[in-house]
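Researcher: Structure prediction, please.
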Amino acid sequence: MSLQDKIRYFEFTHTGQVRDHNEDAVYGDLDLGLVLLADGMGGYNAGEVAAELAIKTVTDMVRAGVERETRSDIDETSGLMRQSIVLRNAVIRANKIIWQTAQTQPQCRGMGTTMVACLFHDDRVSIAHVGDSRVYRLRKNRFEQLTLDHSLMQELVDRGYFSQQEAMRSANRNYVTRALGVEPAVEVEIQEDTVKKDDIYMLCSDGLSDMVEEEDIHLTLSTFSANLKTGGDQLIQLANTNGGRDNISVCLAQVIESFAESHGIVSRLRGWFS
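Model: Predicted structure follows.
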């Protein structure tokens, strides 16, 4: 089911004010309901290679998986929707390909990438992430971070050593504990969320979240919710005005209509009890 007329989508990426090239990658395919963002790292241009490999591999794997299984059944072993399983397996596959490329191509040694991915389906979204790129949701006037960074600083916050405000000011906040391609295997964090009309999902690299306070992001998205292209441009501008110390990437997906599947599990349950 194409979501071209169900979701309004915009993507933005900028080199920033300090880096000499952009190692971020963004991608959206509303025919698949897929939105991806990757923040590459390691060696000149190698981070860009890792990010592009992640985007291509996950897109290809999700496309193949969705074509094989279009129903929104729940996987009995994990309790996850099958689309979530497809997405998680796609990210795991991307890790393997990036790792193998880094081992066999000297110019790519040490490369890796963070990734966040959203797969929209049946009035739901499956979210996969590895690293410190993030997914936020604006619902009505509530702005909420849906992912937790895989970073040393986040682990210290979780253990009570630092507050979130102290973590934002730390020079070590960008030390990630998980990324694609740096180890032969990776644990992909997966979650599911029910979407509602007018929800705005924002995927971003740390080039935005490190440079712009959450309340300023919230205010910008709320102000420009009817014109997300302008809102995204404003976010990039804010990050650059505040220093632009890293590449800056943002994906914005706004739900404008329901995309419930008639053969989804909720519909079938309703049928059984009607």
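Model: Residues 264-274 have pLDDT under 50 and may be disordered.
Researcher: Thanks, that helps.
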